[in-house]
Amino acid sequence: MPSIRRNRLLAHLCGIAIALATPGAHAQDSSADLILIHGRILTVDANDSIAQAIAIRRGVILKVGSDAEIQALAAPGAKVIDLRGHTATPGLIDTHAHIADGGVAELYGVQLSDATSVAEIVARVKAKVALVKPGEWITGSGWDEGKLAERRYVTATDLDAVAPNNPVWLMHTTGHYGVANSLALKQAGITAATPDPTAGTIDRDLKTHQPTGVLKEETAMEPVARLIPATTPEQMRAGILHIQQILHSEGMTAVKDPDIFQLQWDAYKALLDSGQLKERICVLWHAGTTVAEAQKALAEINSVPRLPASLGDSRLLSCGAKIYMDGSGGARTGWVYDDWFRNATTPEPGNHGYPHTDPEVYRQMVRLFHQAGVPVGTHAVGDRAMDWVVDTYAQVEQEQPHPGLRHSIIHANLPTPHALDVMANLQKKYDAGYPEMQPGFLWWIGDIYAASYGTETTGKARGQHLEPFKTLQNRGILWSGGSDYSVTPIAARYGLWASLARQTAKGTFGLHPFGMAEAIDAKTALRSYTAWGARQMFLEDKIGTLEPGKRADIAIWDRDIYTIPAGQIKEMKCLMTLLDGEMVYESPDFK
User: Fold this and answer.
1) Among residues 510, 501, 456, which one has the least CA distance to residue 341?
2) Are strands 177-180 and 168-172 parallel, antiparallel or unpaired?
3) Which of 311, 404, 452, 497 minimizes the number of CB atoms within 10 Å of its CB?
4) Is residue 321 a contact partner of residue 410, using CB atoms and an 8 Å limit?
5) Which has the closest alpha carbon to 539: 555, 523, 551, 557?
């Protein structure tokens, strides 16, 4: 036997002998470096299994089982987290939250989400004026007339009294309208003679016809928005890090951030490269309202890793393009079949909202992305908008089947029976047509929604079918939950609670103007924020359930969502959050 061959054989046999002589060698490769014991583990697997403990190795779940089973897997020196009877769930997933822009707004703008009167909003603007120079812009966000004592819009006249020398822009909580003061309107060239733009509304005083300062939808807001100083890359990164801390404290480990531009992508990428991005982020790129803008977006999408590829081992994914089909329920600009209401009882004759994008152009844009193999998420609030969107998805799939793109209907507030049929067929046949919904709308902006959609007592039962989770469940249609932050607060526990409670914040038109027929149970709600959310981020093989082989993205809570009264879900507190087995948050109440 040649010496080289003989030496290789001897080395191989020696390796076998060493392995056989070291009983723990192979076992060590499958032992846990982290275990969680003495808990109640809600796995959200196909059987909704519940266990006591979890074994983790290098950020991946090895086994879920009893305390004894898991402790037997612990390697010498393994870290042990004693849950002391507390409940663990998969890390929660929000499939629609503008966290980058929202974080910037929280850090640098005037916060108005908790304002309870016009006077309070004006006072906060006045305080900001004292901190800036004349001529500098003042921005803020989060006001909601449904929560104000006056139950009306903030107007330019209100703001002029305290900010005559500073242009002011305050975005509404929905993001679909806002208010400018007179100086901002003047700088933007908006006067009484300015006509409403296509797919936009300049709100006017009913008596004088002068602009009130309230501008609805992008085309109306854009003349003001383009004058506001742009967010810097440094501000964008700081905003993301700010909101990331909040996400961790709420047991949230993955987010789909829709409608981004290069600025947001670059900020996420920079944080990833520096080791600071400790969330799973899936983005949708802004696609505009024209075919040319869609082509530009497609070029941006093609310039970064395409699905199923990711950056940072599933920390940053480019998940497709976003298109707007219509506007807002709060602004009464969503595209609907029947008249919108004002104050729940007074119809606005002829106001059926309007398409944000020309319907035929929209169809061309979807076809462009679909044929390029790019998922599309379409904002559709009104029932007429939803019908057009699902029919478009069906048409492009029939023309050129591309199963697995999971085209989505963002918000999907008011599906018609036709839309339900088409979504069910799309999901079954093409793995597409998924509603990405916001239960928190029923709560946080529920009072203005009730005013716009109408209630059962108005003779219009439309509001009873808003966010129809039970109907979706009965039809076998999967959906995912989200906040649309900063439209509603970011914490997913609010959406979980609202899925069961369907209760408005103020009860202006009753606490349950949308009825309870579409309420679901806690297990289904949790699934919509975990397993089903993971699908819409194209990560269902890695996150969303607590099963062997999945990443150890785990949230630990002070109570069990499956057993507590529904009202307590809103009050749950996160005690600890793990991402890939790394502790990214620990409550002072849990050591």
Assistant:
1) 456
2) antiparallel
3) 404
4) no
5) 551
* Per-residue pLDDT at 345: 81
Instruction: Describe the chain by its helix, strand, coil percentages, rounded to 5.
Output: 35, 20, 40
Type and span of the H or E element at 179: strand 177-180
Spatial contact of 354 and 201, defined as CB atoms under 8 Å apart: no
Average pLDDT over residues 488-494: 97
For 276-329, what is each residue's pLDDT tens digit? 999 999 999 999 999 999 999 999 999 999 999 999 999 999 999 999 999 999
Separation in Å, CA 141 to CA 36, 54, 175, 578: 41, 42, 8, 31
Task: Read off the pTM.
Answer: 0.91
Residues 212-234 have pLDDT tens digits of: 999 999 999 999 999 999 999 99
H or E element at residue 237: helix 233-249
Rounded-to-integer distance, Cα 252 and Cα 442, Å? 21
Q: State how far the Cα of 353 lies from the Cα of 348, in Å rounded to an integer.
A: 10
CA distance 470 to 47: 20
Contact 339, 345 (CB under 8 A): no
Instruction: Point out which residues pair with 377 in neighbouring strands.
Output: 322, 408
Rounded to whole angstroms, how far apart are CA atoms 54 and 70?
Answer: 6
Q: Which residue has the tokens 């024209």?
A: 290
Buried b (16+ CB within 10 A) or exposed e, 570-584: bebebbbbbbbbeeb
Strand order in the sheet with 177-180: 110-111, 138-143, 168-172, 177-180, 211-216, 201-204
Residue 289: CB atoms within 10 A of its CB come to: 20
Query: Which amino acid, 575?
Result: L
What phi and psi, each to the nearest 5 degrees, are found at residue 352?
A: -110, 15
Handedness of CA 484, 290, 180, 105 (dihedral sign): positive
Query: Residue 8: which H helix or E strand, with range?
Result: helix 3-21
**Residues contacting residue 485 through CB under 8 Å, at least 6 positions apart:** 94, 97, 98, 99, 102, 243
Tokens of residue 14, six digits: 């020696």
Cβ neighbours, 10 Å, residue 588: 6
CA dihedral 104, 109, 111, 113 (to 10 degrees): -60
In contact, 384 and 329? CB cutoff 8 Å: no
Burial 64-84, CB ≥16 within 10 A → b, else e: bbeeeebbebbbeebeebebe
Q: What is the CA radius of gyration of the chain?
A: 26
SS (H, E, C) 271-294: HHHCCCCCCEEEEEEECCCCHHHH
SS (H, E, C) 512-549: CCCCCCCCCCHHHHHHHCCHHHHHHCCCCCCCCCCCCC
Amino acid, res. 430:
Y
CA pair distance 452, 459, nearest whole angstrom? 13
Helix (H, G, I), strand (E, B) or coil at 250: coil
At 547-582, the pLDDT tens digits run: 999 999 999 999 999 999 999 999 999 999 999 999
- With tokens 């640098």, the residue in question is 108
8-state DSSP, 584 = E
